[in-house]
Recover the amino acids of this structure.
């Protein structure tokens, strides 16, 4: 193991606690040689006629608002239906259960951040630190479409509902890790990273760091997104700098 991989492995040990509520699930939702912008699990965007699509969006908006205000356990399907001005049965026509509804809330709007990070992974900027920073920032800005209160609910529900929701939550994180993996492979193939770098360990380390920075941003009402991004850039400058070919 070279010095970079040793330091990376040590770093994993210091930051992995951000996800230690549930063991990491090593899903492979994408074929790395295929289209990285299309999720393949059941919470992916559905093609609906215009009227139905608007009604679904209204239900998702109502659910997001109530989950953030009241919490997951305290929010009923009946309350969501009332807020969305639809019948309770209509909610179940779109979403078979409350966990399924939260999964779609989590997935909503994610396609754009996936598209951006996919494009960066396939054709990154020349500077390795800047390339990885840009990819992570795109992911973070995409996640920020949900407010902090909703993210707190999402994190808590992933821990208390591991089977019904937690696995899907970690599947989303694995989708972004695959983009990090592809980006690192691209940079190594360019000769910009050490040829013997352990890509899998490096990608996990970067994901853990980014997840922890975002988690700390979410739990702190006084912290803004730009300060979290600045902290992430400093960390990537250090971590990626260990692997850059001189």
């Amino acid at each position: 193991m070279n010095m970079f991989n040793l330091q990376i492995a040590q770093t994993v040990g210091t930051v992995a606690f951000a996800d230690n509520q549930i063991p990491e699930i090593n899903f492979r939702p994408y074929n790395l040689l295929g289209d990285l912008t299309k999720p393949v699990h059941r919470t992916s965007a559905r093609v609906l006629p215009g009227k139905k699509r608007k009604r679904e969006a209204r239900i998702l908006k109502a659910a997001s608002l109530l989950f953030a205000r009241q919490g997951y356990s305290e929010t009923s399907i009946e309350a969501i239906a009332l807020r969305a001005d639809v019948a309770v049965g209509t909610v179940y026509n779109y979403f078979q259960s409350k966990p399924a509804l939260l999964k779609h809330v989590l997935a909503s709007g994610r396609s754009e951040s996936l598209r951006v990070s996919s494009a960066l992974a396939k054709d990154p900027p020349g500077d390795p630190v800047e390339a990885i920073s840009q990819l992570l920032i795109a992911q973070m800005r995409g996640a920020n479409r949900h407010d902090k209160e909703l993210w707190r609910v999402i994190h808590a529900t992933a821990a208390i509902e591991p089977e019904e929701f937690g696995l899907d939550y970690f599947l989303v994180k694995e989708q972004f890790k695959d983009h990090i993996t592809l980006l690192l492979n691209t940079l190594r193939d360019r000769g910009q990273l050490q040829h013997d770098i352990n890509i899998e360990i490096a990608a996990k380390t970067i994901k853990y760091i980014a997840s922890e920075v975002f988690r700390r941003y979410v739990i702190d009402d006084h912290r803004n997104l730009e300060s979290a991004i600045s902290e992430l850039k400093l960390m990537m400058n250090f971590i990626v700098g260990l692997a850059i070919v001189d």
